[in-house]
Amino acid sequence: MLGKTAGGLFWMLRYMERTENTARMIDAGLRISLTRSSAAESEWKSILTATGLLADYSARYDEVIGAQVIDFLLRDKSNGGSVISAVETARMNAKLVRTALTREVFEAVNECWITLNELLANPVREQALPEVLQTIRQRAAFVRGALQGSMIRNDIYDFARIGTFFERADNVARIMDVKYYILLPTIMHVGSAQDNVQWEAILRATSSVRAYQTLNEGEYNPRQIVEHLVLDKRLPRSLAFCYKKIADNLAYLESDYGVRHPCHDMVEEINNRFATTSLDEIFDTGLHEFLTAFVNDSQALGAQIERDYRFTE
Amino acid sequence: MPDKIEFFDEMFGYGADLRTPYVDYNDWFSSEDVANLKSKSKQAETLFRLTGITFNVYGAEEAAERLIPFDLVPRIITAKEWGKLARGIDQRVRAINAFLHDIYHRQEIVKAGRLPAEMIANNEAFLPQMIGVSPPGNIYTHIVGTDLVRAGPDEFYVLEDNARTPSGVSYMLENRETMLHMFPELFSKINVRGVGHYPRALRRSLSACAPPACNGKPCVAVLTPGIHNSAYYEHSFLADQMGVELVEGHDLRIIDGRVAMRTTEGYKPIDVLYRRVDDDFLDPLNFNPDSMLGVPGIMDVYRAGGITIANAPGTGISDDKAIYSYMPDIVEFYTGEKAILKNVPTWRCSEKDALGHVCDNLEELVVKEVHGSGGYGMLVGPAASKKEVEEFRAKLLARPDNYIAQPTLALSTVPILTEAGLAPRHVDLRPFALASPKGVDLIPGGLTRVALTEGSLVVNSSQGGGTKDTWVLED
Asked: Which of B108, B106, B109, B101 has its CA nearest to residue B138?
């Protein structure tokens, strides 16, 4: 398998995941602005921060206005992080690695691109927004389904999966980091109505409202939310879950190729963190510090995978 | 040009007499509802778009991807007609390979006075780097897409030889897939020869040309300029269907005298490279130094027998439009036989008398650039305005040896499906032949290109042409 192909698969799935995550975050922002319009501006700002696009946005607009942010995140082709740009990049990578994909997977990506281009050709009216966001998530789910249902479990699949979980973990960590101050269990905030809305927004942005309710018997509690999103291996969007998957897929590559690379040591170290660190320790270190360290180490791992498997020259 | 030329229609002949190869199809067609077929046509388009069978048009305002329109009325060729075409193409492909070997070695054909020396010396497509190089099996052109046109029941002409990097074979395959998907019943009624084995045949044929350095099973790869190339879909399609890697220049590097590709497990040598990159861009050390698409030093590896490049560098000299006019001589010189397939009479504008004739008759002729392709930079006299003719005349006189001229052929038509039912449109045909030391393998079918505008003679997809499935009937 070409190194370039491995890289193309990794990035194709990262961008598919990003497409979906951005849609989820818009959904969360929308919900807050509907239920609590006074918090809307800071909510949109934190979403821009979590997507890493606040600076780009501020360079273009003076004010943080919901409709403007939504358009910027959904449709702005000059914004490399928008849904439309992400799906475009995903498809470009799909074309690049086409020989490694089943027809089903390529067509699912291509159809996602075709559909979203039609859907986002014009500004999205407010009343159409929920449906548009749902379609984005649905299209992304089709790609995942095609991948799982039609691809051979070999190195091609491993690189695709690593891309998916890498992006997802990064995304969840960033959302939590933006919100870490409301997740700090200070006496002042606990139980206030504002926190309930904010906490729900985090769960909503990570698509785990239902999962949280099921696993935690209902009550919103910042400690539990952190435990849920960082340490709970049952939740497919938790950091622990994502890293377990990345570690597994890298281990398959190690056994397939018969070569252990530096990235294998790195992933083990990160993965072990979730098994050995307690919630108290996370809060003792500081949630922000914990997440920052995680995001940095994760980035370093990504760069190491790229080197070890020769994505580029 | 006379007021009214009568065109030969491959379904209805010169009148309304249904020709034999179309009888079964016509039976089926008559019982179908045109509106229903039109909706099938839309369905086919959706299918193409979904599969991503698109091409990029150079110079288009938006780098938009376009579909080549597909018409669902097949172009049908009888076994007997095909037999003659097949013999003719086989002969021509053998002659071209022999010609290329001669041109890059002893140049016997020049010594024999059958081809003027300046045709080679002054030819941009002649690569001095190929002098004395003998590729495995002396095969220079491994994949040939001979362009044919038909002007009457028994009148086929070769329009171009396309011996360097013919494209369009993916359309031959996808068009058939689409027809099988939409009209399976047609194929159970009518015995059409299959084309689906092309990718396997291609891989076999390329593997048979492995270089001396190859040990074991030959490793084949397809070299593409990248995803922005107009034919990228075809490159990825062929690599995928052959089950080989699709590489770009930056995936490759020379290691220990071999061209190797960067894999997740290190560099792995390639034996046969099916390149879809032009000569000029193949090797920045030997050709265009600015090329980012090729592999620095690949020519040195090639000359030392470390890799097979298909088609061979320098092959372009054989499908050059000026050389084309000598093809009847070339075929005779190397095969000792008269050419089975006719050439279109061609005036070489580099010759004074010919230029005079061409200038006097511009309104009736088709004038092409010697190195042009894709229907760009050509004049179709009868279809051009006075102003266009005069503008072209100026270009022609400024650089006569850059042009050749041919009579406007009465290209045959095949019906397409329009809102109003069947309507005749002009077509050409590009069958694909594979050459290896084991012989020439011609795939029974090809790419039929069709001018969708009524009366138009330009079939190129870049100029709004479409395609049809091409059926060769079983004996």
From this structure: B101
Q: What is the dihedral angle through the alpha carbons of A210, A214, A218, A220, rounded to the nearest 10 degrees?
A: -60
* Three-state DSSP string of B61-94: CCCCEEECCEEEEEEEECHHHHHHHHHHHHHHHH
Query: For residue B359, what are the domain limits?
Result: 345-408
Domain containing A233 equals: 169-313
Q: Which residues contact B472 (CB under 8 A, 6 or more apart)?
A: B77, B79, B82, B192, B193, B444, B445
Give Cα separations from B237 to B103, B172, B180 (angstroms): 34, 12, 18
For residue range A35-78, list pLDDT tens digits in order.
777 778 888 998 999 899 999 999 999 999 999 999 999 999 99
Mind listing the pLDDT tens digit for each residue in B374-432? 667 788 888 889 999 999 999 999 999 889 999 988 899 999 999 889 999 999 999 99
Using an 8 Å CB-CB cutoff, list chain B residues near A96. 227
A263 assigned to some structural domain: yes
Q: Is residue B403 a part of any domain in this protein?
A: yes
- Rounded Cα distance between A296 and A285, Å, is 16
Report helix, strand or coil for A251.
Answer: helix
Query: Are B50 and A99 a contacting pair at CB < 8 A?
Result: no
Chain A: nearest CA to B71, how far in angstroms? 23
* Rounded CA separation B184/B343 (Å): 38
pLDDT confidence of residue B61: 44
Query: Measured between alpha carbons, how far is A85 from A115 in angstroms, rounded to an integer?
Result: 14
Q: Do A129 and A29 belong to one domain?
A: yes
Question: Per the CB < 8 Å rule, is B236 touching A98?
Answer: yes
B474 contact partners, CB below 8 Å, separation of at least 6? B79, B191, B192, B193
Upper half-sphere CA count for residue A293 (Cβ side, 13 Å) = 11
Rg (CA), chain A: 19
- Both tokens of residue B470? 């091409």
Distance of CA B447 to the CA centre of its chain: 9
Q: Are strands B147-152 and B155-160 parallel, antiparallel or unpaired?
A: antiparallel
Q: Which residue of A has its CA nearest to B48?
A: A107
Residue B68 lies in a domain: no
Q: Are B306 and B253 in contact (CB under 8 A)?
A: no
Task: Answer yes or no: do A24 and A86 share one domain.
Answer: yes
Instruction: Tell me the pLDDT tens digit for each residue of B302-328.
Output: 999 999 999 999 999 998 888 999 999
Cβ neighbours of residue A199 closer than 8 Å, sequence gap 6 or more? A182, A183, A220, A222, A225
d(CA B149, CA B320): 18
Q: Is residue B371 part of a domain?
A: yes
**Residue at B129: amino acid letter:** Q
Number of domains in chain A: 2
Question: CA of A136: how far to CAs of A53, A127, A130, B426, in Å?
Answer: 20, 16, 10, 44
Chain A nearest CA to B240, separation (Å): 5
Q: How far apart are CA A28 and CA B172, in angstroms?
A: 49
CB atoms within 10 A of CB A259: 14
3-state secondary structure of B430: strand
User: Any idea what DSSP says for residue B258?
Assistant: E
Number of H helices, E strands in chain B: 15, 24
* Run of H or E including B206: helix B198-207
Reported pTM: 0.90
Nearest CA distance, B252 vs chain A (angstrom): 10
Q: How far is CA B287 from the centre of its chain?
A: 24
CB B343 within 8 A of CB B409: no
A-chain CB neighbours of B49 within 8 Å are 114
> Does residue B40 lie in a domain region?
no
Average pLDDT over residues A87-98: 96
Q: How many CB atoms lie within 10 A of CB A91?
A: 23
Same domain as A251, residue A127: no
